[in-house]
Design goal:
By secondary structure, this protein is an alpha/beta fold. It is built from 20 helices and 40 strands. The strands form twelve sheets. The protein has a six-stranded parallel sheet. A six-stranded mixed sheet has the order 33-40-39-38-36-37. Strands 8-7-12-13-14 form a five-stranded antiparallel sheet, covered by helices on one side. The structure holds beta-D-glucopyranose.
Length: 833
């Protein structure tokens, strides 16, 4: 009988959990359902929860505890607590009174002595801890610090403190943001509480709601009372973008400064001062931190045209770095990829950056390139699948939402097809000789998928296609604009238009990256080109600015800064790491029991030879990662004070990051480590060795030989990236020292290298790629924490030798190396099952 009741209760809980959602419909001004609108909660604590409407405009947005991340092993559902149910009819005989003075919660209970408890919740309703629980005397004041319990300080975030004396409740929304702490009364039986609120807090404390929006419409909000409401139709009106673009163009056409204004729109200098904005109407800039001052300068110009500010948030930023695209490609999980890119947007936005130079959709087919890790994989299908996910992550379907920014896909056209894997730079454009048929079959589908998903920008790359540098390649820019109907803007890559500004713009580049507005020759060139081309470019730039809603609201939501390095972000990154790892080899240890080398046992004596890489966050993150800074921190950005373009290398220390060693030693506290094989203890049962590449970005990672050890031809000149010692020899030494004991090799690398004797010397072999800051994702899978298994499948064919490169699945007709059987084929990846 009892059992039966438990079963019924269990079923009832699941059923109740399944239906908690806010449902409704998004319609346009004519009451027609709007498909694919983005619906999200207005409360920023729920910023990772969003859905898209169906073909008829209907939506069902899950309650914060029930959304799809619950399906991931990292996420455990937490019951939602009703933090906003207060019976206001109690006003006259209320028994509690509370306020917050910036440090402490102060409260008094009325009348008789009573037990009072106080709990701290996060904004999803999850209880963090009980912070007060005592009998108190009526009429006296009591004080407690809501952020500290047993010396444990909660992270900087927004919380709700709820006091209860069994009769009344009081809820205060409290922000813990270092020195800028403040609170807002959420609900109280009496309204005598003194408030300390800021504008930002007032916004946060507003009744929750759902916002619906779609690019091209004015978004709208419906308020909700519970996470289980059906809301009336949400009407979003057409923003008439083309008409607004045209009318602004008309104003400029008849303005004495019109031509200068138009040219200003076409310039994206590196980190300008406000002078070129106000005097030359510069409409965009890149790198470094944005600032309110620069945007304000733009808003003082005659037509108040807001700025586009670009930067590279290609695998996260500001303390949390995700696996580079190569890892996401092996994970091939569109939900995780979308969430990852959404988090990149949310970290980037409060720096006044609103254009992300991402995702990279190059299909790399030759591993000599230093940009292989920026690529999801060698397969056009896989790249197309994740291209759409990444665009949805960065932009959603609503560029005005406050959580999204514009995506600039790169590097058009087909930079992954460049001959011999040469990367090029602003001064050199190595050639892509593959035929247009090959390019269309292999290299273009990913960009096309992204354009169809609404990508607002496209960056032309360094290489030349058919001997014409992309900076001036009209034919292939026309493919985008004419054949595919792309109506956003095209931007050049770093300095590729230098000295040929007019030619670059004439070819179809609309925005010139790193142009110097004070350099007269470039400006003169630009000025002299066909006015129709200038008008077309400016219309495209304005169209995107209107689509982003910048004319209505150019300001970022600075409250997003409170979520940097949050557990949510780390959990998604960690889930991405788990998914990205590829188990290449796993020997059977015992034929009778079928036991294999992995998963590692926590009771076995695990020893880790960390080498240069296994306990170094810089090598783990690779290029395009910045070091240092406290949390939250505004300088931790590419182009900022702690530039990390080439990767952080040994100098890298990223606050709160977990190295692979730290992850392993947390999972298995008895594990030991040494720098090399000489430190392997006699009683170690299993030896894990971590090897890999130095850090690099772009041309600095180009090599003529992809053997892990040789790195020949690569200059690997990253500022803080010394080349690790012979990695193949390190594994060999471990094997020799291990004798009959198993050796597990973990590869931290940006490309499938030729591995020499490493596979033969390894009883288990794991490709961890460049996992980023959450090294515990690696140990989770090595120890099969919570039964997690390997899930990654190779998105690149793994060659058996340097001579085999290039090597790829199927015969799609492009260049190949010496041929033969690869070490591991495309799609390879073992599991524990
Ligand atoms: C890279 C691009 C990057 C740009 C801006 C260039 O060197 O090729 O991928 O977006 O710099 O940082």
């Amino acid at each position: 009988m009892k059992r039966c009741m438990i079963a019924i209760l269990f079923v009832a809980t699941i059923a109740a959990a399944a239906i908690a959602a806010v449902s409704g419909r998004v319609v346009d001004g004519t009451n027609k359902g709007v498909a694919d609108a983005m619906v999200c909660y207005t409360n920023i604590a729920n910023r990772l929860i969003y859905v898209y409407t169906d073909a008829n405009g209907y939506f069902n947005i899950p309650a914060p505890t029930e959304w799809s991340l619950n399906d991931l092993p990292m996420y455990k559902p937490v019951p939602i607590t009703a933090i906003r149910t207060i019976n206001l009819s109690n006003v006259s005989n209320s028994s509690l009174n509370a306020r917050f003075n910036g440090e402490m919660v102060i409260f008094s209970a009325r009348a008789e002595s009573r037990k009072v408890s106080a709990d701290l919740y996060d904004l999803s309703g999850k209880r963090i801890m009980r912070i007060f629980d005592k009998a108190v005397n009526g009429g006296s004041n009591y004080v407690f610090n809501p952020f500290v319990k047993n010396n444990k300080v909660v992270p900087q975030q927004v919380y709700v403190v709820r006091l209860s004396d069994g009769i009344d409740n009081i809820s205060l929304r409290i922000i813990n943001a270092g020195s800028a702490r403040a609170s807002t009364l959420l609900d109280a039986p009496n309204k005598v509480v003194s408030l300390q609120s800021s504008t930002e807090l007032a916004k946060l404390a507003a009744v929750d709601g759902v916002r619906a929006g779609k690019t091209g419409y004015f978004g709208n909000t419906a308020s909700i009372n519970t996470y289980n409401d059906a809301v009336p139709n949400i009407v979003i009106k057409d923003a008439n973008i083309e008409a607004r673009v045209d009318s602004l163009m008309q104003l400029m056409n008849s303005d004495a400064n019109g031509l200068a204004m138009k040219m200003g729109q076409m310039m994206q200098p590196a980190a300008p001062t406000s002078t070129p904005i106000t005097t030359q109407f510069v409409g965009s800039y890149l790198k470094g931190e944005g600032s309110a001052g620069l945007m304000n300068a733009a808003l003082t110009t005659k037509y108040k045209i807001p700025l586009i500010v670009g930067n590279d948030f290609v695998h996260g930023g500001r303390h949390v770095y995700f696996p580079h695209n190569v890892g996401l490609g092996c994970g091939n999980d569109s939900l995780l990829t979308e969430l990852a890119y959404r988090i990149y947007s949310m970290c980037c936005l409060p720096l006044y950056n609103n254009e992300n130079f991402a995702p990279c959709l190059d299909v790399h087919r030759d591993y000599r390139s230093g940009r292989v890790y920026e690529s999801f994989g060698e397969s056009p299908d896989l790249v197309s699948h994740l291209a759409k996910a990444a665009i949805r992550g960065i932009q959603g379907t609503d560029l005005t939402s406050g959580y999204t920014m514009m995506a600039t896909i790169k590097h058009w056209a087909a930079a992954g097809a460049v001959d011999q894997g040469k990367t090029g730079n602003s001064g050199t454009c190595p050639n892509i000789s593959a035929s247009t048929a090959i390019l269309s079959k292999i290299h273009f589908p990913g960009y096309l998928a992204a354009v169809k998903a609404g990508a607002a920008g496209v960056m032309t790359g360094y290489p030349a296609v058919h001997n014409v540098c992309m900076a001036i390649n009209k034919e292939f820019i026309d493919t985008l604009k004419t054949n595919w109907g792309f109506d956003g803007f095209v931007i050049t890559d770093w300095a590729t238009s230098a000295g040929r500004e007019g030619q670059s713009a004439l070819a179809g580049n609309d925005l010139l990256m790193t142009i110097d507005p004070t350099e007269a020759a470039g400006v003169t060139q630009l000025k002299s080109i066909d006015i129709n081309r200038i008008n077309d470019a400016v219309k495209r730039l304005l169209r995107v600015k209107f689509r982003m809603g910048l004319f209505e609201n150019p300001w970022p939501n600075l409250a997003l800064n409170n979520y940097l390095a949050s557990t949510d972000y780390r959990n998604v990154a960690r889930a991405c790491v788990r998914k990205s790892l590829v188990l290449l080899k796993n020997d059977t240890l015992n034929k009778t029991t079928n036991a294999r080398v992995l998963p590692l046992s926590k009771t076995a004596r695990v020893h880790v030879v960390v080498g240069t890489i296994g306990d170094n966050i810089g090598y783990q993150c690779g290029g395009w990662s910045s070091t240092g800074g406290t949390i939250p921190d505004n300088t931790n950005v590419l182009g900022g004070a702690d530039e990390g373009w080439q990767g952080t290398g040994v100098a890298g220390a990223i606050n709160g990051a977990t190295t692979i060693w730290k992850g392993i030693s947390t999972s298995c506290p008895t594990a030991t480590k040494s720098a090399d094989a000489s430190g392997i203890p006699a009683d170690a049962a299993v030896i894990v060795v971590v090897v890999g590449e130095p850090t690099y970005a772009e041309v600095n990672g180009d090599v003529t030989d992809i053997t892990l050890n040789s790195l020949a031809g690569g200059n690997f000149a990253g500022p803080s990236a010394p080349k690790p010692p012979d990695q193949i020899a390190l594994v060999q030494a471990c094997k020799t020292a291990a004798g009959t004991r198993p050796v597990v090799t973990v590869l931290v690398t940006g490309r499938p290298n030729a591995l020499g004797t490493i596979p033969a010397n390894s009883n288990a072999l794991v490709a961890a790629w460049l996992p980023g800051t959450e090294g515990n994702g690696v140990s989770d899978v090595l120890f099969s924490e919570n039964s997690v298994d390997f899930a990654g499948k190779l998105s690149f064919t793994w060659p058996a030798s340097n001579a085999q490169n290039p090597i790829h699945a199927g015969n799609l007709g492009d260049a190949t190396g010496s041929g033969g059987t690869p070490l591991f084929p495309f799609g390879w990846g073992l599991t524990y099952k």
